């Protein structure tokens, strides 16, 4: 303890002698430079802000440039610290623009409105069966409300709401074995039923036996369906099964246009009555 006290007293004495020598010396360029550097090192705050120019006025040119450069460097470091935040905000704005562009491209029925919801829960053991979204009764969700997904600028059918809570809701995906969706090929008007297989692929059954379906053909929601709006993209044919002599229909394998494992947000179609209720 005494040793630390002696060191502190020695440093204080040295600093005092040095200060007196500087004060007694004539105001030459070296003395002014030393004074300016010591002043900046002890308390740099006054050199920041709008009055920084007044502080460096009258200093030797080399010292003024050195202090100004250090102050500018400090400002740039602070600005760099804000870059990650600005990048996050920019990405958020970009996603919002993408959502709005997709929403403007989708024309729902006059009796429905659109609502975006974030996916907040996935069960690894039921990855292709269901998910939970951050929207509930307060946002006007109802059981059987159609749920859409977006990928690479396109919108596709992904499932329907089966449970509605106060803050969250459960969405049954098309890939679940209990899911079924009336779909068709618009060019030939061939209609069938999309059924989940519990995995990443869907199966379209009950196509006419003479339907000439090719790999890559697009499948859309049928106008005869009651849950989804017509002509929403469901997926693309990836395989044509060989005719089964015991079945009176043809079947194909369909790859979803929006794979369930890519979903982070979904678009839910709500009844217009919810919007009217919130306005009143």
Topology, element by element:
Layout: H1 2-24, H2 29-42, H3 52-56, H4 61-105, E1 112-122, E2 130-133, E3 146-151, E4 154-164, E5 169-173, E6 180-185, E7 190-196, E8 202-207, E9 218-221, E10 233-240, E11 250-256, E12 265-271, H5 272-279
Antiparallel strand pairs: 1-2, 1-12, 2-5, 3-4, 3-12, 4-5, 6-7, 6-9, 7-8, 8-11, 9-10, 10-11
Helix pairs in contact: 2-4
Poorly predicted ranges: none
Relative helix content:
25-40%
Number of helices: 5
Backbone structural class: alpha+beta
Main β-sheet, in a few words?
6 strands, antiparallel, barrel
Radius of gyration: 35 Å
Could you name the CATH homologous superfamily of the largest domain?
Answer: Rod shape-determining protein MreC, domain 1
Q: What does this protein look like?
A:
It contains five helices and twelve strands. It has 280 residues and is α+β, with helices and mostly antiparallel strands. It has two domains: 78 residues, no CATH class; 170 residues, Rod shape-determining protein MreC, domain 1 (Thrombin, subunit H, Beta Barrel), CATH 2.40.10. Helix 2 runs parallel beside helix 4. The protein is elongated. The N and C termini lie far apart (76 Å). The relative contact order is 0.12.
How do you describe this structure in short?
This protein is of the alpha+beta class. The chain contains 5 helices and 12 strands. Helix 2 packs parallel to helix 4.
Sum up the structure in keywords.
2 domains; Thrombin, subunit H; elongated; 34% helix; 280 residues; 12 strands; alpha+beta
């Amino acid at each position: 303890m005494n040793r630390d006290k002696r060191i502190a007293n020695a440093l204080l004495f040295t600093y005092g002698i040095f200060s007196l020598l500087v004060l007694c010396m004539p105001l030459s360029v070296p003395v002014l430079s030393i004074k300016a550097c010591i002043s900046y090192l002890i308390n740099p705050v006054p050199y920041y802000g709008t009055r920084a120019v007044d502080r460096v006025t009258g200093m030797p040119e080399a010292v003024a440039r050195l202090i100004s450069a250090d102050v500018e460097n400090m400002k740039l470091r602070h600005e760099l610290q804000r870059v990650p935040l600005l990048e996050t905000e920019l990405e958020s704005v970009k996603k919002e623009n993408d959502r709005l562009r997709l929403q403007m491209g989708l024309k729902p029925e006059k009796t429905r409105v659109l609502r975006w919801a974030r996916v907040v829960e996935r069960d690894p053991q039921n990855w292709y069966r269901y998910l939970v979204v951050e929207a509930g009764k307060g946002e006007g969700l109802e059981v059987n409300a159609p749920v859409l997904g977006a990928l690479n600028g396109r919108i596709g059918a992904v499932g329907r709401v089966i449970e509605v809570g106060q803050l969250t809701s459960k969405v049954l995906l098309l890939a679940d074995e209990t899911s079924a969706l009336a779909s068709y090929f618009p060019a030939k008007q061939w209609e069938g039923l999309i059924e989940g297989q519990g995995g990443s692929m869907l199966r379209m059954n009950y196509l006419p036996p003479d339907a000439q379906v090719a790999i890559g053909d697009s499948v859309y929601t049928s106008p005869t369906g009651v849950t989804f709006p017509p002509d929403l993209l469901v997926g693309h044919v990836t395989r044509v099964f060989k005719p089964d002599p015991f079945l009176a229909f043809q079947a194909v394998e369909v790859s979803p246009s929006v794979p369930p494992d890519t979903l982070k947000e979904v678009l839910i179609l709500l009844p217009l009555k919810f919007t009217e209720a919130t306005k009143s």
